[in-house]
Amino acid sequence: MKSSYDICLPLLLAHEGGYTNNARDPGGPTNFGITIFDYREYIKPDATAADVREMSIEQAKRIYRARYWDVQRCDELPAGVDYVVFDYGVNSGIGRSGKVLRRLLKFPGNSGTMEDAVIAAARSSDAATLVDAICGERLQYLQSLKTWPVFGAGWARRVKEVQSAALVMAMQAPKPVVAAGVAAGG
To answer: How far apart are the first and last CA of the chain?
Structure first.
């Protein structure tokens, strides 16, 4: 599958914005949506809030690619599904986005691991249906958080905008062509 990272990242960054350090946000000092914790893990172990404020967009892009896109195997997911899983992982954690995808694809257990069988199941599912289901689950989860009264309006808008863009991606993606008399995947 062709990577849509370069399409999805600017959409995600439009929601993440610049530097913030909201006392009600458990992420602490954050820039371009990258928390001080991720900055410390990927760039500078002893980083301060000032370091996060000065983070370059290139550093943020490298973190997004390694920490969220690649770990969730988004290059292997169908168009649109890749974006909702990526954005959900950034906003609520890669464990949660993986668990939701697995549950919607009827995998047992409570793992968030993106193994080959999960990727294959996602690729054989209707992408638009999966996008809608992931976004519905995501909104329910966000509404259950104690910080919903503070951040809920923005989160709801974000989920709606991500869903809309992802549905366009899913509908515009080329469909696999199967020759007459040949089984898909065979």
So the answer is: 17
pLDDT digits (tens, 9 = 90+) for 34-81: 999 999 999 999 999 999 999 999 999 999 999 999 999 999 999 999
Instruction: Please tell me the pTM assigned to this model.
Output: 0.87
Contacts of 140 (CB under 8 A, 6+ apart): none
Quick one: fold of 5-172? Chitosanase, subunit A; domain 1 (1.20.141)
Virtual CA dihedral for 72, 168, 11, 115, nearest 10 degrees? 0
| Separation between Cα atoms, residue 156 and residue 138, nearest integer Å | 9
| Cα 67 to Cα 62: distance, rounded to the nearest angstrom | 8
CA dihedral 9, 125, 119, 13 (to 10 degrees): 10
Instruction: Name the H helices within 66-179.
Output: 81-92, 94-104, 116-124, 127-143, 148-172
Residue spans of the domains in the chain: they are 5-172
Tokens representing residue 131 in the block:
């996008």
Single-letter residue type at 111? S
CA distance linking residue 33 with residue 124, whole number of Å:
32
